[in-house]
Design brief:
37% of the residues lie in helices and 24% in strands. By secondary structure, it is of the alpha+beta class. It has a domain of 136 residues: Homing endonucleases (Endonuclease I-creI), CATH 3.10.28. The strands form 4 sheets. A 4-stranded antiparallel β-sheet has the order 3-4-6-5. A hairpin with a 6-residue loop joins strand 8 and strand 9. Helix 2 packs across helix 4, helix 2 packs parallel to helix 6 and helix 4 crosses helix 5.
Amino acid sequence: MVSIDVFNVDGMFALSYSVVFVNSGLSKVFDEKKMGSYLAGLWEGDGHIVLPSLNSQGLLKNTPCVAITADRKQLPLFKVFEQKFGGWIRSKKKENAVVWTVTAQTDLLKIVTLINGHIRSAKLDQFNLLMDYVNKIFPSAQLVKHSVDCSALSENYWLAGFIDADGCFKIRSTESSVNPQTGRKTKKRMALSFKIEQRQTHKITHQSFEPLMKSIADFLTVKLSMSKHSGVNYGCVEVSSLSRMQILVDYLKVYPLLTTKRHDFEDFLQAFNLIQANQHLTLEGQKTILSLKNGINRKRTIYNWDYLN
């Protein structure tokens, strides 16, 4: 059971946590063999690294770390990460976000060891530089550098982690209408879509994320497209056909999401099954899908974290 109390003190947010894990179910979800690929995907989507910097005397003048940022509502999951893998959590009030940061040297060794071999993107070079630092601190570890992981996306949790970082499930409902100028009629429509976006180039190294995004597009048998937000170019993978969506559904049934997007996918899946069965053509089915649409993503207010137990 995980509970969080958020309260306001003189305009400032304070957080108090109560985290209790029942039975041994936690080890099933957070098996380290599985978590390496998941954490790699999550970090490649919404994480960063602070590399060591030395002063003129050769002394460390900063704190190297691995960090992952997420919406504030992911706090219960980050508390599990903190308990299982170490690190600490800070709140970014203006961004309504939380950051899980791993700085202690022994915890860095654990995280780098877990993620090593699962990196698929332009973030690999910086990760390997951090590994140099870890190997220098722990010479006996002798962590071996790997090239970009090109294994099938269907083989592990990497894509689940990346979707938890950058994916979005949408349920759309369009009412029937008549264009007053042309008289053209538009039918009532229920539809689903899934989108995942990542900036085209790495902020620091300027290396391209296109090979990674192309591999995701190929896995879902769609074309990679481009989009632009606030002057930044992004690679975009979007799925709207039911046949291609089935690939995603089958994958996430084997490798489930861990953030609150798990709830969005469950509602998305319910709508997917209704549409597949042509129930979206019935009044009852339409009511159900509309209800699901009105409770998904930012409209969701209640979260069940029982799967972390």
